[in-house]
Design brief:
The protein is an all-alpha fold and about 575 residues long. The chain has 19 helices and three strands. Bound molecules: protoporphyrin IX containing FE and copper (II) ion.
Length: about 575
């Protein structure tokens, strides 16, 4: 797989990229820790599902909240961000054929992040930080918990700095031609948002750390405002990283075409400009802010960030359609979809990620983020229903799909348990979708989120739910368990491949051996700048246009339905 080259570099036999050894090792280390955190999160998820499924009701209240804290942190913070660090090392020095500007500093930041992660997890598991992922003041954790978060964040900030440095080095040393590739551009936007987010993180957690030591006072409303400037913006890092990987996967699985470079780049820039404002949608029922502020931030400015996602939501599948049509699947509207490589977990994961993120996550997010509608959704199960569609079905699934390509390229191994791997994205994707939809349904029926006992056994009041609640809980339980098994399968496949997998050799590629996704057996021809317009006009993307039409129909129906439900509760006049 390797042709000799400058010291510290190898030439990748599949992509032709010049891969430097230190970035490769950093990607490996970050990816392995990411998978360990995913494993912790997935085991915790089983405990949560089996508790919220009231008929099973596994955990007592204290352990439910402890495990909920553990799950939220390991999934949304540690797994996702360690993986994103790997993405930055990949989209920077590797895609630009350049060197790692400061390997020692990079390893130092990795150690900081690992120490932070271990500190936080120890505090949570020893019962000293039952504060949930949001750690809302005045809930107080052990100061070491906040210190752990700060160490982790400082490490991540250094990695962002190193990523920018690698762009400068690559430009100066002229290791690439023209402008940076779109995947790198997307990663740049992710890293810029990450810097903004991490600075808000410092503004949140440094005062909270001092408050936990009893040194200063902290206002609960101010904390919520600062926290969500961090908590929501960090979701936009995830979206930018995910969309970059959508473009990457589209290209390597089926030769996806970028329909229009300028439009896609502009859409990334919209994320940077408008996303911080959208943080306000977490504060819609808070007493401290006026309606005008809430409506402006969530109903006007936020739509410009939503617009960006909708642009990518058209251009990525459209580009995949054009790529497949160029490969000869030109009949009717959907031959390209029918003949697509569905047995390739990279491709299947990509498509499921786009559908789940757009249809389930996007539509529900815009709806519940509307100032008026939020009052009937706030803190119900609709919330975890929505964000599991975005961060789990969208981002986590996309990261899994990308791993089926990145592991062979970077670890130079063939994927172990290949039969299971082909199946894994479907298990996780279908499980998460079923779980999210049933959570949303439970939420519409009034089920609160973050609730250890839905019978309200020791409460001074009684709550009656509609009887379908208990039926839908069975669907929720099955979906949740399927998703958790899907995530655990991914962990097993990844660990087995990385530590015990058979090597990826030129021989094995020639023989079409098991465990190599089809895009790596034969890298699809890439349509480059200048050829785009011709290719797009040649084939069009009419199938995608139909799919987008269906999307808008669902969007309008769901949005309308929610105003209708609101009108039952909220009699005007
Ligand atoms: C592996 C399959 C998964 C299952 C079965 C699952 C299940 C659950 C359940 C049942 C809850 C509790 C909802 C409540 O009672 O309020 C929850 C919360 C949560 N999950 Fe997941 N989840 C999974 C994957 C993920 C992933 C991949 C992420 C992020 C990348 C994630 C992020 C979260 C967050 C942030 C919370 C909220 C924690 C809090 O309220 O403080 N989950 N999950
Ligand atoms: Cu948000």
């Amino acid at each position: 797989m390797t042709t000799s080259s400058a010291p510290g570099f190898r030439i990748c036999g599949i992509t032709g990229l010049k891969v430097n050894r230190s970035s490769e090792l950093l990607i490996r280390a970050n990816a392995v820790i990411a998978v360990v955190c995913l494993l912790i999160g997935a085991v915790a998820a089983i405990g949560l599902v089996l508790t919220r499924w009231q008929a099973v009701h596994l955990l007592p209240a204290d352990w439910f909240y402890r495990i909920l804290t553990l799950h939220g942190l390991n999934m949304l913070i540690f797994f996702i961000i360690f993986f994103e660090m790997a993405v930055l090392y990949f989209a920077g020095p590797i895609l630009l054929n350049s060197r790692q500007p400061a390997p020692k500093l990079a390893w130092f930041s990795f150690v900081l992040m690992v120490v932070g992660m271990i500190l936080v997890n120890t505090m949570v598991l020893s019962g000293k930080a039952d504060v949930l992922f949001t750690s809302y003041v005045p809930l107080r954790a052990d100061p070491l918990y906040y210190l752990g978060i700060i160490l982790f964040a400082v490490g991540a900030l250094i990695v962002c700095g190193l990523f920018f440095a690698s762009l400068v080095v690559a430009k100066r040393e002229k290791t690439y031609k023209g402008s940076v590739p779109l995947v790198t551009f997307g990663a740049i936007t992710a890293a810029i948002i990450a810097v903004i987010t991490l600075l808000h993180g410092a503004a949140t957690y440094i005062p909270t750390f001092l408050w936990s030591l009893g040194l200063i006072e902290l206002d609960a409303q101010l904390y919520r405002l600062l926290f969500w400037a961090l908590g929501h913006s960090s979701q936009q890092i995830n979206v930018a990283a995910m969309v970059s990987l959508w473009y990457f996967l589209g290209a390597v699985t089926v030769g996806g075409v970028v329909l229009n470079e300028k439009v896609s780049r502009l859409a990334f820039v919209l994320y940077i400009l408008f996303i911080s404002m959208a943080s306000a949608h977490h504060l819609l029922v808070d007493p401290g802010f006026g309606s005008a502020w809430k409506v402006w931030n969530t109903s006007y400015a936020m739509y410009l960030a939503v617009l960006a996602s909708m642009i990518h939501g058209f251009t990525v599948p459209g580009g995949i359609e054009v790529g497949l049509r160029l490969r000869g699947y030109t009949k009717g509207f959907f031959e390209w979809l029918r003949k697509a490589p569905w047995g390739d977990p990279g491709f299947a994961g990509l498509i499921l990620s786009i559908i789940i993120f757009g249809f389930l996550g996007g539509i529900t997010g815009v709806t519940i983020g509307t100032e008026q509608i939020n009052i009937i959704a706030h803190n119900t199960m609709r919330l975890p229903g929505h964000f599991h569609a975005t961060v789990a079905g969208g981002t986590a699934l996309c990261f899994m799909a990308a791993s089926y390509y990145v592991i062979p390229l970077i670890f130079r191994k063939r994927i172990s348990f290949w039969g299971l791997a082909k199946f894994q994205p479907y298990m996780f994707g279908i499980g998460i979708s079923v779980m999210s939809m049933s959570k949303i349904y439970m939420g519409i029926l009034g089920m609160p989120r973050r609730l250890a006992d839905a019978t309200f056994a020791n409460a001074p009041f009684t709550v009656e739910f509609h009887p379908t609640m208990w039926a839908i809980q069975v669907v929720f339980g099955i979906g949740g368990l399927l998703a958790a098994i899907g995530a655990l399968s991914f962990c097993i496949i990844a660990v087995a491949t990385v530590f015990f997998g058979s090597p990826l050799t030129e021989e094995s590629i020639k023989n079409g051996s098991k465990g190599i996704p089809q895009g790596l057996l034969k890298l699809p021809a890439q349509v480059h700048e200048g050829q785009h317009v011709k290719a797009v006009h040649q084939t069009g993307a009419k199938g995608t246009v139909v799919l987008v039409g269906i999307f808008f129909f669902c969007f309008v129906m769901y949005y309308f339905l929610n105003w209708k439900i609101l009108s039952f509760l909220w009699k005007v006049g």
